[in-house]
């Protein structure tokens, strides 16, 4: 019996998902959200190979800002990563894959990589796994394999792959004849009618050494920068940081443009598994269960004479009357209303938020930190109120502020407070004051979450007014 090939999942989790604002934000992006089902898209991706033999622990590549959230989600589902490689800046998928390949070769592992974006939905796991097993044989033989989605309609939002000669009769594997850019509507219809085109999924399989060989031939500049960044990096607990300066100097390019469109060893495996990249609110509606009126409803929502709409409430009652083909998404600090036909244009609102120097594209009202989370309660000039939740055994950094003082009131749990040279315990309903410029730290020595109400007062209350002296999470000052 042939020994099963080892498969190394490489999960790329670098996108911001701006078209899914206001749920997806820079500091809590699309892959971390449970958009379809109870698991986040990242968790679903990490579980997608469950049941297959010889699947190794995943290698993740993600933005440094998301490292603790990513690690916690993998821990929650019992799938710790072989490595979490941290990108100081985004440089698209080709450099991200190169870092993963360098890591695997350093470990002496040159079996097959399965490269998956962290933000896809694939309902038919059996069909996906069957395609993966087929692709693994091709990849082991030196092919650079991609997966082409069998199209269900004339889609203008995806790139296409034109099938070439069959590699093995009846298996659904073909040589790649051509990669095609996103078409206009008429061209997309002609592709669908031809029956020789597949949607470009962005999922790949190949050996690490083969990827680096092809990259050396077609984009040696990317390989050089990534080698310098990887070899000059450091290990930080469960994470591997690459050298920031070298990686920032790396050209930005996709796997497709850098190699796949140039190699003569590209193969495509047809995949019919209900795939979606959840690229917009309308595509989320398409893969979600609807009621008899065609509405996808989540949360506290009431409707009347409403059809074919996506209605999501997270904090307040949403009532919709007499609308059709509309998306309404309510969060604690923003409400989006958009016609489904304009769902792709939500990114223009995000662009306006950036131009206006606002923070709603970056953060939710509740912001997660490695020690827990904080949530804004109230704010006005010279003061703001936050609710802090500190996990059992967790600790904020030893820090000080140049422009603000803080009052802490314990609501639930036990707090260990460092204030200057003092260290003392606070219990429920007790409070303390941290003067401006005083070194301080907040810890939770107990077994239950610590809830604190923090009242900040001062001339400047931005999150960047933090000077860290000690930090158990090795957060780097920006």
What does this protein look like?
This protein is α/β, with parallel strands linked by helices. The chain is 22% helix and 33% strand. It has 11 helices and 28 strands. It has a 6-stranded antiparallel β-sheet, with no helix packed on it. A 5-stranded mixed beta barrel has the order 5-8-6-7-11. A hairpin with a 2-residue loop joins strand 19 and strand 20. Helix 3 crosses helix 6 and helix 6 crosses helix 7. The protein is globular, with a radius of gyration of 25 Å. The N and C termini lie far apart (54 Å). The mean pLDDT is 94.
SSE inventory with pairings:
Layout: E1 7-13, H1 41-46, E2 59-63, H2 67-76, E3 83-87, H3 93-106, E4 112-117, H4 125-140, E5 144-149, E6 160-166, E7 173-180, H5 185-194, E8 197-207, H6 208-218, H7 220-231, E9 234-236, E10 239-241, H8 244-248, H9 255-260, E11 266-271, H10 281-286, E12 296-298, E13 301-304, E14 310-313, E15 318-321, E16 326-330, E17 335-339, H11 346-355, E18 366-369, E19 372-380, E20 383-390, E21 398-400, E22 404-412, E23 415-419, E24 422-426, E25 431-434, E26 440-443, E27 450-458, E28 467-470
Parallel strand pairs: 1-2, 1-4, 2-3, 3-10, 5-11, 12-14, 13-15, 14-16
Antiparallel strand pairs: 4-8, 5-8, 6-7, 6-8, 7-11, 9-10, 16-17, 18-19, 19-20, 20-27, 21-28, 22-25, 22-27, 23-24, 23-26
Helix pairs in contact: 3-6, 3-7, 6-7
Quickly list its features.
478 residues, globular, alpha/beta, 6-stranded antiparallel sheet, 5-stranded mixed barrel
């Amino acid at each position: 019996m042939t020994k099963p090939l080892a498969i190394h999942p490489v999960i790329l989790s670098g996108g911001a998902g701006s078209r899914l604002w206001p749920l997806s934000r820079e500091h809590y992006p699309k892959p971390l959200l449970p958009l379809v089902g109870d698991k986040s898209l990242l968790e679903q991706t990490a579980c997608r190979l469950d049941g297959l033999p010889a699947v190794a622990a995943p290698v993740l590549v993600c933005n440094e800002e998301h490292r603790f959230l990513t690690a916690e989600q993998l821990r929650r589902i019992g799938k710790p990563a072989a490595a979490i490689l941290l990108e100081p800046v985004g440089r698209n998928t080709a450099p991200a894959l190169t870092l993963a390949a360098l890591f695997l070769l350093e470990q002496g592992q040159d079996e097959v990589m399965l490269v998956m974006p962290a933000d896809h939905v694939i309902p038919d796991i059996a069909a996906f796994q069957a395609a993966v097993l087929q692709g693994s044989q091709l990849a082991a033989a030196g092919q650079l394999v991609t997966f082409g989605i069998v199209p269900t309609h004339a889609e203008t939002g995806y790139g296409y792959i034109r099938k070439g000669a069959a590699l093995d009769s009846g298996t659904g594997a073909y040589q790649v004849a051509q990669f095609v850019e996103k078409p206009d509507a008429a061209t997309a219809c002609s592709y669908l009618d031809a029956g020789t085109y597949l949607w470009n999924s962005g999922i790949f399989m190949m050996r690490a050494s083969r990827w680096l060989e092809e990259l050396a031939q077609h984009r040696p500049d990317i390989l050089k920068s990534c080698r310098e960044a990887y070899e000059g990096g450091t290990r930080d607990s469960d994470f591997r940081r690459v050298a920031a300066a070298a990686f920032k100097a790396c050209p930005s390019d996709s796997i497709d443009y850098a190699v796949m469109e140039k190699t003569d060893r590209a193969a495509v495996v047809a995949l019919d598994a209900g795939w979606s990249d959840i690229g917009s609110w309308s595509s989320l509606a398409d893969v979600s269960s609807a009621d008899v009126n065609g509405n996808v409803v989540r949360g506290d929502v009431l409707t009347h004479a409403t059809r074919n709409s996506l209605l999501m409430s997270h904090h307040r009652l949403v009532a919709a009357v007499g609308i059709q083909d509309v998306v309404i998404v309510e969060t604690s600090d923003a409400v989006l209303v958009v016609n489904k036909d304009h769902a792709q244009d939500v990114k223009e609102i995000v662009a306006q938020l950036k131009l206006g120097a606002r923070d709603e594209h970056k953060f939710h009202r509740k912001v997660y930190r490695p020690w827990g989370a904080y949530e804004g309660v109230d704010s006005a000039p010279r003061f703001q109120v936050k609710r802090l939740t500190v996990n059992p055994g967790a600790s904020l950094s030893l820090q000080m502020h140049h422009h603000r003082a803080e009052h802490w009131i314990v609501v639930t749990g036990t707090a260990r407070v460092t204030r200057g040279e003092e260290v003392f315990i606070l219990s429920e309903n007790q409070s303390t004051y941290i003067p401006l410029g005083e070194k301080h730290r907040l810890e939770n020595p107990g077994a239950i979450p610590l809830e604190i109400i923090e009242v900040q007062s001062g001339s400047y209350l931005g999150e960047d007014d933090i000077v860290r002296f000690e930090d158990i999470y090795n957060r780097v000052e920006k």
